[in-house]
Amino acid sequence: MLKLYGSTTSPFVRRLRLWLANVEHEFINMQIFSGSDRELLARMNPTLKIPMIDDEGKVIYDSRVIFRYLSDKYAERPLNWQQENLLTLIDSANDALVQSLILKRSEIEEDDSKLIFRLQKERIQTILEHLNRLVEEGEFGHWQYPEICLYCLVDWIEFRELHDLSAMPALLEFQARHNDRIEVTTTNPRNPD
Predict the structure, then answer these.
(1) pLDDT confidence band for 106 (50 / 70 / 90)
(2) 3-state SS string over the chain?
(3) In sequence order, which residues have a C-beta less than 8 Å from that of residue 63 and are 6 or more positions away?
(4) Of 12, 59, 138, 151, which sits most exposed with the smallest number of CB within 10 A?
């Protein structure tokens, strides 16, 4: 059976859980920063990151690569180049926000005089403004993988209180429009296991 390894709070893992909502699989919720789960992660995945899948002994890393693998496996239509670009935007914002969260949890104070903080803040703001504009223009009008990824990003930002989205009403409306989907409610990171 297909096994998806990750955590309930990761936006990269959640996007795959949403996409796999109607596919039989086992979800293994891991505590990736210590203990036996960390050891398992290190044995299976040299990137030491989640998500990863194990498909009958074939281990695949990275949400983007996993999605391509599963799309091929289940004969889904591949993403077009515009959709790939949308994923690059979403992934870039997600990556920058993950780094910000890790720095914060490492008790490293944000300092706008440091290049790393200025670049990350600029990247996040620019991408989110662009995504907000694209939603306004109707770019995310379906519920396919790019929409799933955007939903996971926006919901995770709100869940972790990582960025003020009040000036981006299209993103918040997009999130609200999809909040009641059954696969969204069952994977909500705010719900205790």
Answers:
(1) very high
(2) CCEEEECCCCHHHHHHHHHCCCCCCEEEECCCCCHHHHHHHHHHCCCCCCCEEEECCEEEECHHHHHHHHHHHCCCCCCCHHHHHHHHHHHHHHHHHHHHHHHHHCCCCCCCCCHHHHHHHHHHHHHHHHHHHHHHCCCCCCCCHHHHHHHHHHHHHHHHCCCCCCCCHHHHHHHHHHCCCHHHHHCCCCCCC
(3) 12, 13, 15, 16, 51
(4) 138
Tokens of 42: 């290190």
Interval 170-183 mean pLDDT: 98
Determine how β-strand 3-6 pairs with β-strand 52-55.
antiparallel
Q: Identify the band that residue 193 occupies on the pLDDT scale cut at 50, 70 and 90.
A: low
